[in-house]
Amino acid sequence: MSSMDILEEAKAKACCAGLYQSELARMVMGDSMHPGGLALTNQMGRLMGIQPGDWVADLASARGNSAVAVSRVFKCNVVGVEFGREAALEAHAAAVNARLAERSHNVQGDAESPPLRAGRFDSAFCECAMSLFQNKARAVAETVNLLKPGGRFGLSDVTVEPNCLPAEIDGTLGQLLCLTDALTVQGYVDLMEASGLQMLHQVDASIEGIKILDALEAKLGAFTAWQKMTGQQGPDPEMLERGPELLTTLRGLVQEGQLGYWIFVAEKPTS
Ligand SMILES: C[S@@+](CC[C@H](N)C(=O)[O-])C[C@H]1O[C@@H](n2cnc3c(N)ncnc32)[C@H](O)[C@@H]1O
Fold first, then answer.
1. What does the buried/exposed string (b/e) look like for 86-104 if buried means 16 or more CB atoms within 10 Å of the residue's CB?
2. 243 in any annotated domain
3. Which residues line ligand 1 (CB under 6 A)?
4. Does any domain span residue 64?
C-alpha cells in the first residue's frame, strides 16, 4: 500500500466516523446504531456464551451503548474500539454515568487493526460496522488474533444481494444505512471461515430491518408535518420528498430477502 493510499484510507475512516457522530446520525438511528437495538445485542451475547468476568472487545463501538449494556447484563469486561474521537469520549462518559467505568473501557482507534493485546479476549463482537470496513478480511484476521483459542466472534450486519439497490442509495445515505459495502449472507460466512473461524450460529434478524424502516418513516412523517406547520425548510428537501418512496422500496427488498440483517457467531478453533 502506498503512503497516498494509507492517507486516503485514513481520510475515508475519519469521514465515516464524522458522519456517525453527527446529529443527522443520532436523529436517524438513535443511540443504538443498529437494527434490533440492545435486545439484539443481548441475543448475540447469549449466542456468544459471554460469561461473568470475561474480556470482550466491541469493535466499532460508537457511543458505547452496546458496550455498557453488555458489561451490565453479562457482568463482563468490555473494551470498545471506535475511530471517532468524540464518540469514544461520549462512550467513556456513558460508562461513568452508568457506574460501569471499571468494566466498560473505551479506546479511540481503528477497529480494522485494533490497538488491543493479542490472545487476551474471550470474545469479540462487531455490530453494523463490518459492512463499513474497507479491508474486511484484515479486520476479521485481526479479530481472530485478539481471541483466545475457543474464543467467539459475534458479527451482526446488513446483508445485501448483488445489484438490488436503487441508484439513489449511494453516497451519504447508502453509508449511513450501512448498505454501500455490505456483503451477502454467504459473503459474511465465507469471510469468517476464511480466517479459520468455525461457524456456530446464523440468525436471520431481518424483521428488525423492517422495524427500523418503519421507525424512519414515522420520523420522516413527523419532520414533514413540522415543516408544514413552521414553514421551515429541511436540509435536503428533494431527499425528504423522495424519502417515503425510497423506504417503501427498501421494505420491499427486505420482504423479498434481497436486503436483510443477520447475526453470525463463530468460534476460534482450540488447536
Ligand atoms: C452503524 S455504526 C454502529 C455502531 C455500534 N457498533 C452500534 O451498533 O451501535 C458504525 C460505527 O462504526 C465506526 N467505524 C467505522 N469504521 C471504523 C473503523 N475502521 N474503526 C473503528 N470504528 C469504525 C463508525 O465511526 C460508527 O461509530
1. ebbebbbebbeebebbebb
2. no
3. 13, 16-17, 20, 32-34, 60-62, 65-66, 81-84, 87, 110-112, 127-129, 132-133, 178
4. yes
